[in-house]
Each structure stands twice: as C-alpha cells, then as structure tokens.
C-alpha cells in the first residue's frame, strides 16, 4: 500500500484512531511506511506503536539502519512494533536506551526460552560480578551497579515481552521466564549487597522464593515474596553471622525496591516469614523448623507449597525447602484445615473494596485466586498420598490433578483455559505501564488496547468483555464445586498412611473400623482399585472416605459389597465416579444407604441411575406428575409388556427416592405412606390405560363399552402404605349407554385381569400385588361389579366388617365421574347418620377379639408384633375406626380414610381426650416407622423386630438412635405400645 493511497479512511479501517497524527508519522518513515503500515495495524494500539517508532527514530544513532532492518525483516519489525503498541513503559525504556532495539533483531529470539543460568550470568555480569564465584560480589561504583542491574533487567524483560507479544508464548512459559529472571535479579542484588556489607563472608544467606516466584509463575510486575535463611560461615561467630545476614538481606531488599534514575525493579516482600513483619528478617534453619513445628498457622503451610531455593546459598535454601516439605504434606491433617483454608478465601473476598469487586481480576469472585486456592487445597489434601499432584505451578498441578482423577476432565480443561486467559489478561494489563495492577480498566481506550493485544482485532472491547465474563463465571462455578467439595473435609481427616490404601494399611483399618470380614472387604477393595485406569484412581480417592462412612453405619461389610456391585455395573458410566467425587453429599448418602438397607441396595442395583438422584430433593413426587410421566413412557411401546416395564421402571426409581428420603431422615413417616400410596395411584392409572388398550386391540374394539374405576382399600385407601404392602382394591364399572351388559362385564373383567397380569410379570422392580379379596363375597364374588350391583349388595347383604372396610375406601383411579358416584354410594353406609347401635359396637369388638386370638402368627411375641401385637397398628386403627362408625355421621372431620386425620378430628370433637389422642398418634407413627425400617433393613416385609443383632442395630439406626442403642430402641418400642394399649383398653373396649 503506497503512502499516496493511505488516507484517513484507510487508516481508520486499519484500526488507527488518530489518523492525522498517524499520517504525519507515516510520512516520517519515508519509503519504509509501505511495508510497515499493515504490521503496525496488527498491534495492540496502532497509533501508539507508530508514535513510539517515530520517537525511537529521533534518538537512535542510525535511523536508516533501524528503518532498513524493519523493512527487510518482518520478524524484527513485528517484535519491535508489538512492544511499542502494547507497552508505553518499554517504549520509554527504548527511548532511554535506543541501542536496545538491536535485541529484537535477534532471529533466535522466538525460538527457545533462555536458560535460567544464562539469565543469571547476564545479570551478574552487568553488576561486575563473576557468575562462577560461589559468592559473587559486585565490582565498581555502587550507584553504577544498581543502575546497571535495572538496565539489564529491562533489556531482558524487553526481549521476553517481544517474544510474548509477537510469538504468542504460553502464559506458563512467560511466567516461568519471569520467575527465572527474578531469581537472577535477586542473585545480582545480593552481589551488590555483598560489596556494601563489610565481612559479608561471615554469613551464608539463602534466599527462598515464595508465592508466584517460587511457583515459577511470576507476573510482569509483582512483589517477589521471599524468606531468608542463614547460617554462620565456617569458624564465624553466630552473633556476627546474624548481623551480617540481616544487613545482606536488608540491602538486597532495598537494591531491588529503591527508585533511581533508571527506575525501580519490583518490591521484595519478606512478610511471609515466621511471625511476619514482627519477626526477625533472617533465621537459622533450626529456628525456622522450631517455628513451623510449633507455631505456624494453616495459611503458612499453604504458602510453603510454592517455596523454592532461588538465590544466594542454594544448598542452605534447599535444606530449608527439604525441611518444610513433610510439614506441608501433613498440614491437611490439622484440625479444621479445610475449613480454615475456605474461611481465608472468604476473608479475602470480603476485604475487596466494593468499587473494585466486579472488575478485580486477581482477588475477586471468578478471579485468579479462586483457581489458585481450589488447586492448592486439592493438592494439600490429596498430595499427602499422591506425589504426582505436588507441582508448585498452578497449571501443572491442575493438569496432574486432572490426570489423576481428582478433577473431572471437562472441569480441568475449562479451569485451565480460564486461568490461562485470566493470567494473559493480567500480563497485558501490567505490561502497558509496568505497574502492579489487578483491576480491569473500564475506559474504552484501555479495553480496546487490551482486547487487541489478545488477538481480538474486530470489536476488541465487546469481545474481551464477553470472553472475560464467560471465564469468570466458569471459574466461580468450578471454584464452588472443587473448593467447597464436601469430600475434601472427609479426606483430610484420614491419616496420610491410610489415605494410600496399601493392602497392609487397608486391612488394619478395616478391622479397626469394625468390618467383620476384613479379608473379604480387602478383596472388594483390590477389585475396585487395581489397575492404572482413571476409574481405579478415582476409587482410590473415594474409598478411604467411604470406608469410614460405611463403618459409621450398621453393616459396613454389606455397604462395601453393595458399593462394589454398584460400581461394577456403573464403573464405565462417565458420570458415576465423578458424581461421587464432586458431590460429597451423594457419596455420603450412598454409603449410609448401602450399609443400612438391603431394600434400597437392591433398588440401586436394579436402578443404578438412581445414584444421581441422591444429590437432589428426595421428597415424594405428586401422583399427577408421576402419572403423566408413566403415561408418556408407556405410550412409546406397542407391546403391553414393554409398556408396563416402562411404568414399573418409573415406579422403581420413585420407590428408591422414597426409601432414600426415609433412610436419611428427610421424609416423615406419614409422608412416606402418602408417597407410596400416590405412587401406587399413578402405577395403577397408567397400567389401567395399557390394559385397556391391549384388551380393545385383542377384541377389535374402537372404544371401551364401559367405564372403569379402581377403589383403593385398606392401608392403600388410607394413604398409609408401607414398603411391603399389597395394593388392596375393588374394581367397579359402569356400561356406556346402549352397550350390551354382558359385553361390558366381560370387557371390564378382562381389563382387570390384564392389569393384574401385567403388574405380576417377573421384572427387576419390587412386585406390586393387586389384591381384590376385600370385594363383596371375597374371592368367591365377581372381580368387577357394576355400580348398581354394589348398591344392591350393600343394601341387602353387607356385613359389619364390610362397612368397616369401606371406612378406608378411596376411589382414586379410573373414570372421575364413576369414582365420584361410587363414593356417594358408600358414604351413607360407612358414615351412618345416626351412628351404629350398641349391638354393632359389640359385634365389632367381638370380631376384634377373634382377630387377636386367631390372626397372631404362631410363635410371635404379642408384646412386639408390630401389626397385631398389644398396642400395635391393628389396635390403634380399630379404635379409630370404631369412633368413625359411631360418630362420623355427626362429625364431618371423621369422614376420612386416614388414621391420623380421623384421630385428630376425634380429639377436636372431644371423643378422645388430648393425652390419649397424643399417645395413640405417637404410637401409630412409631410402629409405622419401625415396620418400614424393618422392611428397609431386611429387604422384605416383616411385622416382627429382627432377632439378628446387626439387623436390629440397623433398625435402630434408621430410627435415629446412636450406635449401640438397639436395646434402648426395643425398650422405647415396648413403652410406646404399652401406653397405646392402655388407651385402647379404655376407648375401644370400654
């Protein structure tokens, strides 16, 4: 592009904002302008790049040489122009030292990173010191050496910035080179200090880098955190050595920090030393060790994670690092370590000025510290047993944590990408003025320069803000996920040798934790953790914690065995192990369930996807939502058997939800019964639809000749199902107008039979037996009756027990209008307006006495039998039902199929005094809980307390008793039922 064709419009399109000044600048370049204008347009700030080049031409000894070099070598031009467009401070440095532009003409500049020893040698030579001397000392005038160090530092920094900007170095490479440059600068400053301090040879002084310098991840401008360790030289007096070492350290700090005609380098900060600024500047190795072993706080061990010997007596500094390493990798075992670290991060956020909070790149939420704290906490917890995750550099450590399975692959990649972006943005911000800043500017000019420096030439401001906010959100999300991971606290509490899970340590730990078969448990562990797969690695992380959680439950052996079976069925599923690792609540809940409940363990083996559910809400779902899901799932299948398998799959999942909520103490016993009943409602509703379709298809019918409804009876009708309950029902139908009565009855019978057949098919879910024996005439009567047939039967043949049974009738499934009409039919029968006569009361009591005598299983203890024992469920429910039969006609509140609601209504009506009602309510709830707990523990229904010691302990645990309290649980059970029996004697038997 010729200068003649380069007008204001062209410059504006190329990214120049001040075309008049830039045109003048291009004119100053002469013929070199043509090849350079496109390169200038690619810089962070084309106007500044051009202005900086013009300033440089005004001060170099041979402007023509510079222009020729730029015109002939695009690499030289791009390196120089990139620096001039991105860093005003380095542009000023070039004007002060114009010959330094030759540094950027080095064709090898972008090829490799200079070695740390080479940087150190150049800096020492700049101050007149011999790099080969064990204790190099500066020569020549002090002021000249101090300035020479600054000039040489800027020269090397200029080379790095040019490579960074034009060759797109990785942020980790830039940070590492800056750290090497800082280490060499510290050594050169110490060489000047030796020249200043008389008798410098009396003390050995080692410089240990901390923080970013120690971690090889320094910024362009940053404090360099250090700790000094000293020792007397051979034959020197200790007091003299302390004095000399203190003077050397003090001078080193001033040499780097002081402002001179050549500016400053960066502050050297020794505040991370023991006792901070109040403590001595230098200490011996023994003094350091004594402090860290006795007095150090949690944050000091986190800081030592990045300690590195960098300058001075490297052997002595290396001894310091070696001495602190065991302390660092055992720090996580300190009481409250994880909580202290988390609290420290929160304090940092709380102290950010409000006006900076949203644009704080380093300390704010979603900033660099979020990544660094999360990575360091994971390192300190897991690094005790796994040396792979100990690198001091954040990105290297994150990579190892990801490879080892402590961080998910996607999470690790997202965090790596975000951290690299944030560090690059931080570098670009600091490079402009070589100032230590961490607040992202909000003025458009600065944002435009930053965006362009990061490659966003089109819409640099908008793109930069969009990308930054995306990474900020990702960092905050992942920080919350990793840093506050509940599993970390549990892992940190495990002693380091046990966290490794070596066979010997594992077997000892298993026996100590109470596993009855430690060798069998060890075989499960070996099966889960053998090999080098990612899954095995994650299992090695999880199992030390899970073993403890299993041991806190009644049956650790069953818990571990169940976990192995579950893991073998789900181990290759991507989400399974990562969910357990990242969602500590899921892992802990799973461990407790597996080591307590055979019922829930069986459900999990049949429905392993249910593991995911353990992290969410475990409250029972409403029948409407379940019905809709079941109908949608079954509607995708043509074969009725397949359709019902889909329905039963939803039921299996929801049984697990209810059981888990019950086991974890999250769901009240009344809500468990209601939840199981609503789940049965949905199952029957969806299966009735499938059965109807199947019968119509088999008979070639377009529409049903009759309407059907299902009436819930017994505990199902009372919304009081337990895990092992059958679904007691009656079927009612009503022929459509004009339909043949026999055809309608045959159709209704076929649908009812098909419904029962489908639900009885073998399958992976617990059986749902549909029991219709409470229908009129029992097993001898027709399975399905019309509404009129029910009316005729109840009017002529109904017995007392049938009226009593109808107290729990609830028409819940099928045609809504038919359900309503059936309810209207039976209400007068079960709630007689004038109550029941005394002879009926007598009959009810007679039937109850017969039940007590004949129904109790042989050998069962009448004191502890949960259903038919003294003060058990039957006693309480018959008592409430007798009150309903006598008084529901006059007391509307008694017209409910639910025991507790009817009992509350009887109390409110004064039919039962408040104390007696409370006793019955508490006993009913208690016995119902125990009955459910027995089923959950044993995996099958039972109305008797387990005789097995471990099963009885598990029942006590489900009820919330502490370990070792199974006898107390039995005693409490006897007390509840004894008190209930007293009330039954008064209220039922009179």
From TrEMBL:
Region (Adenylyl removase): 1-487
Naturally occurring in which organism (per UniProt): Nocardioides aquiterrae
InterPro entries reported in the protein's UniProt record: GlnE, GlnE_rpt_dom, NT_sf, PII_UdlTrfase/GS_AdlTrfase
Region (Adenylyl transferase), start-end ranges: 495-990
Enzyme class: transferase
Protein name: Bifunctional glutamine synthetase adenylyltransferase/adenylyl-removing enzyme
Catalysed conversion reaction: [glutamine synthetase]-O(4)-(5'-adenylyl)-L-tyrosine + phosphate = [glutamine synthetase]-L-tyrosine + ADP; [glutamine synthetase]-L-tyrosine + ATP = [glutamine synthetase]-O(4)-(5'-adenylyl)-L-tyrosine + diphosphate
Name of the gene: glnE
Keywords: ATP-binding, Magnesium, Multifunctional enzyme, Nucleotide-binding, Nucleotidyltransferase, Transferase
EC number: 2.7.7.89, 2.7.7.42
Function text: Involved in the regulation of glutamine synthetase GlnA, a key enzyme in the process to assimilate ammonia. When cellular nitrogen levels are high, the C-terminal adenylyl transferase (AT) inactivates GlnA by covalent transfer of an adenylyl group from ATP to specific tyrosine residue of GlnA, thus reducing its activity. Conversely, when nitrogen levels are low, the N-terminal adenylyl removase (AR) activates GlnA by removing the adenylyl group by phosphorolysis, increasing its activity.
Lineage summary: Bacteria, Bacillati, Actinomycetota, Actinomycetes, Propionibacteriales
Domain PII-uridylyltransferase/Glutamine-synthetase adenylyltransferase residue range list: 343-483, 847-972
């Amino acid at each position: 592009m010729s200068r003649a064709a380069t007008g204001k419009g062209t410059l504006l399109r190329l990214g120049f904002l001040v075309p008049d000044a830039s045109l003048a600048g291009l004119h100053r370049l002469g013929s070199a302008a043509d090849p350079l204008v496109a390169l200038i347009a690619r810089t962070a700030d084309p106007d500044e790049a051009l202005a900086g080049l013009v300033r440089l031409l005004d001060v170099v000894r041979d402007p023509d040489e510079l222009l020729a070099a730029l015109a002939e070598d695009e690499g030289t031009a791009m390196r120089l122009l990139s620096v001039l467009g991105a860093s005003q401070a380095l542009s000023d440095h070039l004007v002060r030292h114009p010959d330094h532009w030759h540094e950027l003409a080095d064709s090898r500049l972008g090829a490799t990173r200079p070695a740390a020893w080479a940087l150190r040698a150049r800096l020492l030579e700049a101050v007149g010191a011999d790099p080969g001397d064990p204790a190099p000392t500066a020569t020549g005038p002090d002021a000249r050496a101090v300035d020479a160090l600054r000039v040489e530092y800027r020269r090397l920094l200029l080379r790095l910035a040019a490579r960074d900007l034009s060759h797109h170095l990785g942020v980790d490479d830039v940070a590492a080179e800056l750290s090497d440059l800082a280490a060499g600068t510290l050594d050169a400053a110490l060489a000047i200090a030796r020249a200043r301090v008389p008798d410098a040879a009396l003390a050995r002084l080692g410089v240990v880098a901390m923080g970013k310098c120690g971690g090889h991840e320094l910024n362009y401008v940053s404090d360099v955190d250090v700790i000094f360790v000293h020792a007397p030289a051979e034959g020197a007096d200790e007091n003299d050595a302390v004095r000399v070492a203190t003077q050397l350290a003090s001078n080193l700090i001033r040499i780097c920090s002081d402002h001179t005609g050549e500016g400053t380098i960066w502050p050297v900060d020794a505040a991370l030393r023991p006792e901070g600024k109040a403590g001595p500047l230098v200490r011996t190795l023994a003094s350091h060790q004594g402090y860290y072993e006795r007095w150090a706080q949690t944050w000091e061990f986190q800081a030592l994670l990045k300690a590195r010997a960098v300058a001075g007596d490297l052997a002595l500094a290396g001894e310091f690092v070696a001495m602190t390493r065991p302390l660092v990798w055992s720090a996580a075992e300190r009481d409250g370590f994880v909580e202290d670290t988390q609290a420290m991060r929160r304090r940092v956020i709380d102290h950010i000025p409000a006006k900076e909070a949203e644009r704080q790149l380093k300390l704010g939420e979603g900033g660099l510290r979020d990544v660094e704290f999360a990575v360091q906490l994971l390192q300190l917890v897991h690094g005790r047993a796994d040396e792979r995750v100990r690198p001091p550099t954040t990105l290297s450590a994150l990579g190892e944590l990801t490879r080892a399975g402590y961080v998910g692959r996607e999470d690790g990649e997202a965090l790596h990408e975000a951290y690299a972006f944030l560090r690059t943005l931080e570098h670009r911000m600091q490079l402009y003025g070589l100032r230590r800043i961490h607040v992202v500017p909000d003025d458009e000019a600065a944002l435009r320069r930053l965006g362009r420096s990061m490659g966003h030439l089109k819409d640099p401001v908008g793109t930069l803000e969009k990308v930054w906010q995306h990474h900020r959100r990702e960092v905050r999300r992942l920080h919350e996920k990793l840093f506050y991971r509940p599993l970390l606290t549990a892992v940190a509490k495990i002693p380091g040798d046990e966290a490794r899970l070596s066979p010997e340590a594992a077997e000892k730990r298993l026996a100590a934790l109470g596993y009855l078969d430690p060798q069998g448990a060890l075989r499960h562990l070996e099966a889960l953790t053998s090999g080098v797969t990612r899954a095995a690695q994650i299992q090695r992380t999880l199992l030390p914690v899970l073993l403890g959680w299993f041991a806190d439950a009644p049956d650790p052996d069953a818990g571990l065995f169940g976990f192995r079976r579950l893991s073998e069925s789900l181990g290759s599923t991507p989400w399974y192990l990562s969910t357990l690792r990242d969602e500590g609540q899921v892992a802990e809940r799973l461990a407790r369930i597996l080591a307590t409940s055979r019922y829930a363990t069986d459900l999990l083996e049949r429905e392993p996807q249910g593991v995911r559910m353990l992290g969410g809400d475990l409250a029972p779902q409403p029948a409407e939502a379940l019905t809709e899901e079941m109908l949608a799932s079954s509607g995708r299948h043509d074969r009725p058997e397949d359709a019902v398998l889909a329905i039963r799959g939803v039921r299996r999942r929801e049984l697990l939800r209810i059981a888990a909520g019950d086991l974890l103490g999250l769901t009240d016993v009344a809500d468990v019964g209601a939840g199981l009943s609503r789940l049965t409602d949905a199952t029957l509703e969806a299966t009735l639809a499938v059965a109807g379709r199947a019968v119509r298809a088999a008979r070639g019918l377009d529409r049903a000749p009759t309407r059907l409804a299902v009436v819930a009876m017994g505990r199902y009708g009372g919304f009081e199902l337990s895990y092992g309950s059958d679904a007691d029902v009656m079927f009612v139908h009503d022929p459509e107008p004009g339909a043949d009565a026999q055809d309608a009855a045959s159709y209704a019978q076929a649908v009812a039979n098909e419904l029962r057949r489908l639900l009885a098919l073998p399958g992976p879910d617990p059986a749902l037996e549909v029991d219709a024996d409470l229908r009129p005439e029992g097993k001898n009567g027709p399975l399905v009756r019309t509404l009129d047939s029910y009316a005729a039967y109840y009017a002529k043949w109904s017995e007392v027990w049938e009226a009593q049974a109808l107290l729990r009738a609830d028409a819940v499934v099928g045609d809504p209008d038919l359900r309503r009409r059936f309810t209207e039919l039976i209400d007068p029968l079960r709630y007689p307006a004038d109550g029941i006569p005394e002879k009926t009361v007598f009959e009810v009591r007679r039937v109850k006495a017969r039940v007590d005598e004949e129904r109790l299983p042989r050998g069962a203890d009448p004191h502890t039998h949960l259903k038919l024992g003294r003060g058990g469920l039957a006693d309480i429910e018959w008592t409430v039902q007798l009150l309903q039969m006598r008084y529901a006609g006059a007391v509307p509140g008694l017209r409910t199929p639910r025991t507790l609601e009817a009992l509350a209504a009887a109390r409110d009506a004064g039919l039962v005094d408040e104390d007696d009602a409370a006793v019955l309510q508490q006993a009913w709830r208690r016995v119902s809980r125990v009955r459910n707990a027995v089923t959950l523990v044993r995996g099958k229904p039972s109305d008797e307390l387990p005789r097995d010691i471990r099963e009885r302990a598990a029942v006590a645990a489900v009820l919330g008793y502490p370990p070792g309290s199974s006898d107390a649980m039995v005693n409490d059970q006897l007390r509840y039922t004894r008190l209930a029996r007293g009330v039954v004697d008064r209220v039922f038997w009179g």
